[in-house]
Amino acid sequence: MKSCKSDFTINKKSFSENELTYWKKFGIDESVLAKFNVSSISEYTTKNKEGKPYVVSANPNKFIFAYENKNWVKLYKPLDDKKYRFQYLGIKEQGFIFGWKQLPAKGDLVIITGGEKDVMALHAKNYNAITLNSETAVLSETTVDELKSRFVAVMVLYDNDATGVEQSSKLAKKHGLQRLVLPPLQNAGKDISDYFASGRNSVDFYSLILASLQILAMEIATDKVVFNAKELLERGEVEQKYLLEPIFPQKGSAVLAGKPDTGKSQFARQLCIQVALGVDSFIDFNLTTVHHRAIYVATEDNEDATRYLISKQFKGLNSEAVENLRFIFADTMSTDEIIKNLNEQLTLQPVDLVVIDSFGDVFQSNDSNNNIAMRNTVKTFDKIGKDHNCLILFVHHINKAAYRVAPGQEHIQGGAGLVQKVRLAIILSEGEGDIRYFTVVKGNYCPKIYKENSLELNFSEETFLFSNTGKLIPTHELGNQTAKDAKDERHNDLKVTANTIFGDKLLSFTTFVTEYCAVTKKSTATAKRAHANLVKYGIIEQFNGVYRLKDYISEDREETDVTLSDCKTLQSSYSGKPSDLEPHCDLPF
Question: Could you tell me if 219 and 387 are in contact, meaning their C-beta atoms sit under 8 angstroms apart?
């Protein structure tokens, strides 16, 4: 049958067996095609950009289907290259929504999906669905309001590729809709049609909807902050849940810290691998996973280094690599980009564990001693863990002064802000040879025995794997440096720094702060604390309103008072105001 419009012509024919077989794999039969006004085309005629007519014909290896409308059609050529797969003939209707006419007046659920084929595949499974012109098309407030008035629930289900995930998230957030996200599909499948073609059925899809609604309920519950006692107890189990019982909690945030070369990254990576393998223990503790999946965010090791390390670890575990462990290589990403990628990956596939290696690269401040900035950074990732019901484990460093002392939470870089906010803090320290010590320095629900004693582990340089020796060592016995020795070392470090900055110079408080920051690359706040300690320990002294090394006597300068001329010279070289200097530094001008 021939259909003629003003600037194009289509010749329709009956569907061939091969064409019907194509549609059938998505669950779409001839009755569904008829309902949505889909035709098989033997050939069509239209004009090119120069206005010259041309004809395109179908053949057994080139299907041509038409989504027909009043004065225009959208052609679908599924076997063509991607750039030729879709074509419009005539003038497309503004704001057209495929599937709108087929919607019932009222219903329980309507799904906004990514294409005409998806709409029909859902309809064939008795689900109401519509699609816009593309996943990036704008949905009007008027349309959303009407959908919400006609249906109990409105959900967004786009492709599970990067564009689909991003656009469905934007659409859902803008209009307050619930999202459905498909699991990874075989053979590069990405949409709901591919989902059904892969063998999934209506029961599987219904389970996916229920899971999505449960996540919505959890998100609503998470947003709620006021509960009465009855509501609180009704929210779920009262027993504490663990990823690694009784140490690592099931969700929230934790930190694993240590000096360089103790193997903390290998430890975290091994934990990820064993989570992904679905084994039931790690260093002889019960490992309880729900999804058997983990994500490792690497801000330091690149792909080559990681490939080498995990090849050793998988080999040492006598296991093959698995798809359940994903790596995000984030050495060039900002913190916001890391968070965006992480949320997308967790939405695509939930996991049991996320490792951030290392914390310093996601910390959102230049001052590592800023407690508020520390807490805010942890809070951001802690919320991700709670929203996605997984544990976020930060790999971090300890202070240099703590390298040879018994582990304590005060030794983890970042001050109290970091340790206070995480639920679990662990320090991994060195022993003799291949021995490492695993010390819980903070554990909200960790038994006292693991807080007072450290686990003795063996670390293999061959396989980069840890194993439990079965020994518990009193934590206070670790380290070969006393508190007095550590204090003396800090004192000596301060003297070295002071000698570097002062020499035989006289410096104002402000000048010292500037030079300290330049020499040590540390913050102004740290410089001010260093100045206070230098005065406290008697390393520098105030001298006529400025500061000098207390014990320094120049070979070519006698120790005399600073003259008025000296002070005026100092003032002329200082670009600030005298009031910017330390309050008790009264210069004589």
Answer: yes
The answer to pTM > 0.90 is no
Cα dihedral 369, 371, 372, 373, rounded to 10, equals 40
Q: Cis peptide before 358, with omega less than 30 degrees from 0?
A: yes
**Tokens describing residue 412:** 């983890």
Question: Which segments in the chain show pLDDT lower than 70?
Answer: 1-6, 135-136, 213-225, 235-238, 415, 480-490, 552-589
Cα distance between residue 411 and residue 405, in whole Å: 9
The values of phi and psi at residue 57, to 5°, are -115, 150
CB atoms closer than 10 angstroms to residue 50: 5
Characterize the bridge pairing of strands 435-443 and 453-459.
antiparallel
CA angle at 177 for the pair 163 and 193, rounded to the nearest 5°: 50
Alpha carbon of residue 135 to chain centroid: 24
SS3 state at 510: helix
- CA 74, distance to chain mean position in Å, is 39
Helix (H, G, I), strand (E, B) or coil at 297: strand
SS3 of 28-60: the string is CCHHHHHHCCEEEEEEEEEECCCCCEEEEECEC
Which tens digit of pLDDT belongs to each residue from 158-195?
998 888 888 888 888 888 888 888 888 888 889 999 99
Q: Which amino acid belongs to residue 246?
A: P
What lies within 8 Å, CB to CB, of 234 at 6+ separation is: none
Residue with tokens 């074509």: 87
Query: Beta strands 353-357 and 391-397: pairing type?
Result: parallel
Reported as a single tens digit per residue, the pLDDT across 487-504 is 666 678 888 899 999 988
Amino acid sitting at position 21: T
